Every structure is written in C-alpha cells, then in structure tokens.
Amino acid sequence: MPNFVLFGAPGAGKGTLAGKIKKFSPVAHISTGDLFRYNIKEGTPIGKEAKSYIDAGKLVPDSVVIGMVKDRIALDDVKEHGFMLDGFPRTLDQAKALNEIAKLDVVVVLDIAKEDLKKRILGRWSCPKCGEIYNIYNDELKPKVEGKCDKCEDTNLTHRSDDNEETFEKRWNTYLSQSEEVINYYDKTEGLVGRVDGTRTMSYTEDELRKILKL
Ligand code: AP5
Ligand code: MG
User: Fold this and answer.
1) Do 12 and 110 contact (CB within 8 A), yes or no?
2) Contacts for 53 with CB less than 8 Å, ≥ 6 apart
3) What does the mean pLDDT of the chain come to?
4) What integer pLDDT is reported at residue 52 of this predicted model?
5) Which ligand minimizes its atom distance to the CA of 111?
6) Against a cut of 0.85, is the pTM above it?
7) With 126 labelled, which of 17, 141, 163, 178 sits at a CA distance of 20 to 30 A?
8) Active site residue 160
C-alpha cells in the first residue's frame, strides 16, 4: 500500500473513502479532524486550543497540527503498515513539513463543487463508537434504522458541531484560500497527484481510488 493523502474540500468524501480502505487494509488512517475531535472530547491542551478554530471554520495553527501529525506518524503502526492522511496537509507549510518527516507516494484530490457539498455536510451523521459515516439524504449511505448505527445497533448517531450552514461557508472559504497552492506544490512532482471526480457515487469513487493506488 502506498503512503497517500486524501485531499479535498469539507464534505468531499475523504473520511468515507478512508473507511472503505480500512475494511481491507491495516494502513494507519490519520485524520487530523478526528484527532482534534478526540482531543476536544478528552479535554487535552491540544483540544482546548483547537476548539475555537474548528467552531469558527478556521484552520488550527500549523505549529499545533504539524506537531500532532509528527507524533502520530512516529507510532509503530505507521512504521509497519504505512499511512493514509485525511485532511492533512492543508497549507503549503504543512506540505513542506510532511516532506521532511515522511515519504509520500500519492496525493489523491477529490474534485467536487460547492453546491454538492452543502447537502453532504448537512445530511452527515456518524457513529461515535465505530466512526462509520452516514448521510440521511443518500439512499446508498443512509442508516438502516433512522438515527442508529448499522454496526453498533444500540448506538445513537451524532451530528458534528461544525456541520451547520454558517460554519460550512467559512470552512469552504478557508479551503478555497489554501488548496490551490498545496495542489500546485504537489503537481510539480510528475505522477504524484491523482484526481477523482468526487461528485459520483460511492462505488465509483472507491473504484477510482483503487485504480490510482493500484490496489
Ligand atoms: P475535518 O474533520 O477534516 O473536516 P473537513 O476537511 O471539513 O472534511 P469533512 O470531514 O467535513 O469531510 P470529508 O471529506 O471527510 O467527507 P465525508 O467522507 O465525511 O476537519 C475539521 C476541522 O479541523 C477543520 O475545519 C479545521 O478547523 C481543523 N483541521 C483539520 N485538519 C486540519 C489541518 N490539517 N490544518 C488545520 N486545521 C485542521 O463525507 C461527507 C458526507 O458526504 C457524509 O455524510 C458521507 O456519507 C457523504 N458522502 C461521501 N461520499 C459520497 C458520495 N460519493 N456521494 C454522496 N455522498 C457522499
Ligand atoms: Mg472527514
């Protein structure tokens, strides 16, 4: 399995695709958003610092994110199985820092327009126990029983606090202001970037991802 990055706007499908890969591979899934939410829940110093940025739809400062990812990449599961990064890097400085700490084989960019994203963000529910992601507006991605996880039957699904219309607008603008220079940075290396049409069905995007990763 190559070391790769899932890159895309809020709601593009990064976490959902990572979940598909995890079903058949032990590769380490490193989602900076998930790490922050865990730290917020546990009340750690990182969580306390990150919360106000996340609630405002802004990026957590590079120094905090880079330190957290460095620590995560140093763990044994990454040494053994490699990594898939979800939501990192998001700035040029993060991309340069990653270059110093790890070898990256592929950057997968999920292309999707703003108008398709809002419905995904507002319809997203997830399981606090196993992390499975659902969407109530999509028949393919709906839970079997409303509000309950298909796998952890007694668990109620939850909605992220930043998944509202106002914060989505801010997250989208943040993405627009940072994404181009990160993609341009990676585009300089021939063959590093692979693009997936993120507007298509889940099975289509998974197939395209597998082709890019040669799985
Ligand atoms: P993070 O948690 O990474 O949020 P995000 O980038 O806004 O992305 P999302 O998790 O919202 O979307 P996703 O692409 O994972 O989509 P998903 O698969 O869930 O970050 C949160 C915050 O943390 C940031 O705003 C920032 O403050 C901070 N942060 C994180 N990383 C940082 C960094 N590197 N630097 C600084 N700050 C950082 O899918 C969305 C919905 O769509 C789901 O309901 C799903 O079921 C549905 N869906 C998925 N695929 C499809 C499909 N093909 N068709 C139809 N529906 C689909
Ligand atoms: Mg996500």
Assistant:
1) yes
2) 59, 60, 61
3) 96
4) 96
5) 1
6) yes
7) 178
8) yes
